[in-house]
Design goal:
- The chain is α/β, with parallel strands linked by helices and 330 residues long.
- It has a domain at 2-172 and 221-249: Rossmann fold, CATH 3.40.50.
- Helices cover 40% and strands 18% of the residues.
- It is globular, with a radius of gyration of 19 Å.
- It binds nicotinamide-adenine-dinucleotide (NAD).
- Nicotinamide-adenine-dinucleotide (NAD) binds at residues 6-7, 9-13, 31-36, 51-52, 73-75, 77, 92, 96, 115, 117, 168, 170-171, 182.
């Protein structure tokens, strides 16, 4: 199948593009490189640098490559920034994404896999979180993703769009040459690895007085390769499931201190750690129930053991101390 991957120069999108190629699909990537890296686009994929709203360029690409399905990763995805600049988040994650979706429907591309997020749930009222947990986002990022999920739901009912929205918890780990390089880096494991590599990166634990066993927040880390596998399974299942939402998590929580210990053990390095006040809107525990995707799509995380995640991310970080670096001169 020919699959269009938006945001395929980003962290999760590049790994998924690679896995699609490995599964025998043809891949075209569009990405504006606002947070992504040209070097991350896997060899074998067609790449076009374009904004999601550039309907002329994307329309031509869809026609030229015979795109039959789309995986939509392109988004603005920084929770804190979404609170100070919500307009940007709604513009990219809703307005431009909707313009893009309309183009696809016009071109009769009806199969769509969407990168959603655990941020659609907001403060958990029960844990592990199942898909029918109340949806009350506490940041504009989560709200923007929920709005787009709702659009997909109604378009499925009205226009026959077939979609799966995958609500990932914390994507982590690396796949060989493909790893995580965000500026700024807000994710725990790469921040810890930066500190392990270079003590100029100061590592802070935000809050050690949560009602958890060691006082630090508990999160669910899922290997990016397992996320990629969920995408491939979802794509194959579209003719049967037609419209569905699934959590993608390891269903096992790790506290910040536990992750810190795993990083110290894997890297063999110790670095200064300071405790800072809690961040606003950080729930104590966020752990997924992934029972639904296991039952319906036979998805089982095979790479998400914490040490395995850290080992793969550390291997990548050692090879890419400054991330992907500047693009190679063509
Ligand atoms: N990383 C996580 O832990 C996580 C968790 C939950 C959900 N998600 C979702 O997964 C997706 C991928 O996340 P990521 O961590 O790989 O982010 P990322 O920033 O690495 O990748 C996003 C990509 O989209 C591109 N992009 C952004 N705006 C665009 C636009 N207007 N037009 C074209 N391209 C554009 C960026 O250049 C980048 O390459 C996002 O939708 C995010 O919301 C990620």
């Amino acid at each position: 199948m020919n699959v269009l991957v938006t945001g395929g120069a980003g962290y999760v999108g590049s790994v998924c593009a690679q896995q699609l190629l490995a599964a025998g699909h043809k891949v075209a990537v569009i990405d504006d490189l606002s947070t992504g890296h040209r070097q991350a686009v896997p060899r074998g994929a067609v790449f076009v640098q374009a904004d999601l709203a550039d309907t002329r360029t994307i329309g031509q690409l869809v026609k030229d490559t015979g795109v039959a399905a789309v995986m939509h990763f392109a988004a603005a995805a920084l929770v804190e920034k979404s609170m100070t600049d919500p307009r940007y988040y709604f513009e990219i994650n809703v307005q431009k994404a909707l313009q893009f979706l309309h183009l696809l429907l016009e071109l009769e591309v009806n199969d769509f896999i969407f990168s959603s997020t655990a941020a659609v749930y907001g403060e958990p009222v029960s844990t592990p979180i199942t898909e029918d947990h109340p949806l009350r986002p506490i940041n504009a990022y989560g709200e923007s993703k929920l709005m787009f999920e709702n659009i997909l739901h109604w378009y499925h009912r009205a226009y026959g769009l077939r979609y799966v929205a995958l609500r990932y918890f914390n994507a982590a780990g690396a796949d060989g040459e493909l790893g995580e390089d965000h500026q700024p880096e807000t994710h725990l494991i790469p921040r810890l690895l930066n500190a392990a590599l270079d003590q100029a990166f100061e590592f802070a634990i935000y809050g050690d007085d949560y009602p958890t066993s060691d006082g630090t927040c508990i999160r669910d880390y899922v290997h990016v390769l397992d996320i990629a596998e969920a995408h491939v399974l979802a794509l194959n299942a579209l003719p049967v499931v037609k419209g569905a939402v699934y959590n993608v998590g390891h269903s096992e929580g790790h506290s910040v201190r536990k992750v810190l210990d795993a990083v110290a053990e894997v890297t063999g390095r110790h670095f200064p750690v300071r405790t800072a006040p809690r961040r606003v809107g950080d729930p104590a525990v966020l752990v997924a129930s992934s029972e639904k995707i296991a039952r319906e799509l036979c998805w089982h995380p095979r790479h998400s053991d914490l040490k395995n995640i850290v080992r793969s991310a550390w291997a990548w970080k050692q090879q890419h101390a400054s991330g992907y670096g500047p693009p190679a001169v063509q």
